[in-house]
Specification:
Layout: H1 2-6, E1 11-14, E2 17-18, E3 24-31, E4 34-41, E5 45-54, E6 59-68, E7 77-81, E8 83-88, E9 94-96, E10 102-104, E11 111-113, E12 145-147, E13 154-157, E14 170-174, E15 178-185, E16 190-196, E17 200-207, E18 211-212, E19 219-231, H2 234-248, E20 263-267, H3 273-285, E21 292-295, H4 337-345, E22 349-354, E23 358-360, H5 364-368, E24 373-374, E25 381-384, H6 389-406, E26 408-413, H7 420-425, E27 431-432, H8 434-453, E28 458-461, H9 463-466, H10 471-474, H11 494-506, E29 511-513, H12 525-530, E30 535-539, H13 548-567, E31 574-577, E32 588-595, E33 600-607, E34 615-618, E35 628-633, E36 639-643, H14 644-650, E37 652-655, E38 661-669
Parallel strand pairs: 20-21, 20-30, 21-22, 22-26, 26-28, 29-30
Antiparallel strand pairs: 1-2, 1-7, 3-4, 4-5, 5-6, 6-19, 7-18, 8-17, 9-10, 11-12, 11-14, 13-16, 14-15, 15-19, 16-17, 18-27, 23-25, 24-25, 31-32, 32-33, 33-38, 34-37, 35-36, 35-38
Helix pairs in contact: 3-4, 6-8
Amino acid sequence: MNFLTEQKRFSFKLDGEDCWELPYRKEIRKEGNEVISAYTFENGLKITNIAKKYEKFGAYEWVNYWENTSENPTGKITELFDCDCSVDFPYEKATAYPWEVALPDMKKATKIHAPIGSSIGWQEFYADADEIMYNLPTYHLYSKGSLLLEHLALEFHNEGGRSSNGHAPFFNVQKEDCGVIAAIGWSGQWLARFERDETHLFVKTKIQDTAFVMLPNEKFRTSSVVIMPYVGDEADGQNKWRRLVKEHFSIIGENGREKNGPFSINFWGGEPSESVLRKIEQEKKSKIRADYVWMDAGWFGARTRPTDGDFGQEEWVWHKQVGDWCVSPYVHPNGLQDVAKAVKDANMKFLLWFESERCVKTAPMAQAHPEYFLSVQGDNNLLLNLGNEQAWEYIFKSLCDTIESLDIRCCRQDFNMDPLVYWQTNEEKDRVGINEIKYINGLYRLWDELLERFPNMIIDNCASGGRRIDIETMRRSIPLWRSDSQCKHEIPVEIWQNHHLHYNTWLPYSGTHTWFISPSGKPDLYLARSSYSAASNFASGQVKNDDDESSAAQAWLDERKREYLWVREYFSEDFYPLTQSSAKKDTWCASQFNRPEKGDGIVQIFRREDSPYENARFLLRGLKEDTEYAFTDIDSGEITVINSKDIKETGWLVTLPQRRSAKIYKYEEVLV
């Protein structure tokens, strides 16, 4: 625990003075794997730093709790870094080139892999420092990563107040054979700064803009951080991180919840109950049925009429009713009670969409209690102020009533707005950052108390598709809709393959939409396998008729569902990208999921439609030395036995004669 006892781990200034130069009283105690350090300053300001070490992973986490214990306002708190620490880090000597730019040996250089956030494109959660490592840090701006040279700091931040919008709050500071992973736990606006000297890596993270006094008896928490050193290459570090997340930062498998991400059949909420009930009955007859019935937006609002999901301009369209959380009597005359009963009778669970934090100005609650909301001039959207106790109580009760009434087992939390401008516009003098801090504290409290009241429920963290993913939302939820690119049928399927490579680097559990059958109604194996993930949902009504052709399609659909449920458990195991990420269609795309505890795994391989190559060799990872493995083509059942020594030396040869083809191979250790 030396790291936790020898460093103060955070810093700030109080009325312009470095906090550690001011008089303070320190109390420290250990409770299990936690170190609790309380610092009380003369003006009554108290900061309690709760830190812990995850011994199995050599990882550290901490968070700061702030309290003004006096009856007077504190001095002004500025330059607040919740993480301000150093980690031992080896050094590479720079080499002077003729053009007088000192650069290190590129194979040994310190690089920061910093994933892009959600952006509705193929590069979401992509982080490849090698692509731009020749960019000097002084020109660094929103890159996927960069070269970290001595005494030149690199900074990253997100956009708009959602934690993985623009940039995601995860970083792998990596060298040839070691590295440090850092992750920020703040679901608002954050900033991270990295710097190094000859012996240390310096990490500083914070809520981006804060400058405030604390009022008498005021309390709140600020951002958390996880620091995890590792030995090995980038993939070794990422798999150590995935295992840490599975064990300590995941809602999946906790409190009796399923050990895998949910598999759902998806309905548009604006589809009338009569149609929904008919499709649930059809799914009930399926040989392989989904775990959940997923009902998306469009089900709510006293004026909402049936819609097909479009964004029309009529006053009764669903997106103009956000904030009116009564069930639409025009779309669901029985208040969804008949749908909830049908879901239960089919032995499935109910997943329902909400957007609790956004409200239009015409909604009844906005008219009755405008004080519950933050507004921005010229914007029809309001932000429910989760830092306001009355507003918090209102939405908590509203959610609980609906969840309880309809037996909701997954609460889908969307968030289709950038909150930062709302927080900042309504800031009080000398209280910069307080609106955001109180809001995020209210968000965590809301999710925590929902999970306490409904311990078997899970929360889906959507936020316009993957725009609020961080370690604090991860420990309370799962992103079942990690990208809004899935909203558009015409987006190339290869984008989903790339997302599989990117998101799995950081998240052992995330979900996406699965097209088992193409929008044209034709079975499409390449399309289906491109969208498998640790959690998945598929559209209802993919088989439309009762004719022979549709019967064959239904049988094919059942086979794909069976296949998906079989491979699903592998997607949370150790992950190795086997190819580079690319938007081009003349390449192959492949990935490996390895389960060393059982000596098995799967390999997914795609030959894209313009690729001229029929053969490829793959260097698999995580296999035992000099061990025979049996590889099974799950389509043909053909088995090939290969020694891991040969795979390591020359690679595993795969032949795909057909363009736009998809293969899944299972491998397992041959027991002698």
